[in-house]
Write a structure and sequence with these properties.
By secondary structure, the chain is of the alpha+beta class. Helix content is 29%, strand content 30%. The longest helix has 13 residues.
Length: 233
């Protein structure tokens, strides 16, 4: 059964990327996760040479549309459309970020959820290729099937594959993990000389690396014991 995700591109303030990532994992997940019926799938840094910087990518997992609706109900219930139970968290987060762009995603049937990755102890990846693929309206299902099928390089893992909801079935996001930099180099070299796949109208690919407490890195959800004084870094 498909899971639902919130996918966030977050613009962070100057050199505060690692502080925001810690605030987003250790300071949010222990209380915010159960409250919102969500799991942290991954938190990443975008490698600035490949895209907009400084930027953080967060991906949140829900079992169903009902759970996503519950998340919105909690979030929008308080004054200013902010959950009053997390007032201090929101105030601190405002110091680290200044905007972003979110998507709602629906997973492919062969896309592993975060609990599967946690059972494996994490993804074992040093870096990730994050692709946004555009196609003709109504073609996202065919494109995502093809994208999942071409993850065939030795050592490369399909971390996640999704189509973007609330659109015209015209956008797909694929996340692949690489066990070492040599494998990424070979893969990117091959992609650079490959022909564009049929049905692809556009592609934006960036490189990501795990945040310190990303579940894909540590093989579990962040817990309260992971917290530290943010002032000390």
């Amino acid at each position: 059964m498909s899971k639902i995700y919130i996918h966030e591109f977050v613009d962070v303030v100057g050199t505060k990327r690692s502080l925001y990532q810690h605030h987003m994992t250790a300071n949010w997940v222990p209380e915010g996760g159960p409250l919102r019926r969500q799991r942290c799938f991954g938190v990443f840094s975008l490698v600035g040479s490949t895209g907009r910087w400084p930027q953080v990518i967060n991906i949140w997992e829900y079992d169903s549309w009902d759970d996503l609706a519950h998340n919105f109900e909690v979030e929008l219930s308080g004054p200013g459309h902010r959950d009053p139970m997390l007032e201090k968290w929101w105030a601190a987060a405002a110091e680290f970020r200044h905007g972003g762009l979110d998507r709602i995603l629906v997973s492919h049937d062969d896309s592993p959820g975060i609990e599967a990755w946690q059972a494996d102890g994490g993804s074992g990846s040093v870096a990730y290729s994050h692709e946004i693929l555009l196609c003709e309206p109504g073609s996202a299902g065919e494109l995502i099937d093809a994208a999942v099928g071409r993850v065939s390089e030795p050592g490369v893992k399909l971390i996640g594959a999704w189509r973007t909801a609330m659109r015209a079935q015209d956008e797909v996001i694929v996340l692949r993990g690489f066990p070492d930099w040599e494998t990424w180099s070979r893969s990117e070299s091959a992609a650079d000389s490959a022909t564009v796949e049929p049905g692809v109208l556009g592609c934006q690919r960036v490189l990501l690396v795990d945040a310190e407490l990303s579940p894909l890195r540590i093989g579990r959800q962040p817990v309260e014991a992971d917290r530290r004084d943010l002032e000390s870094g």
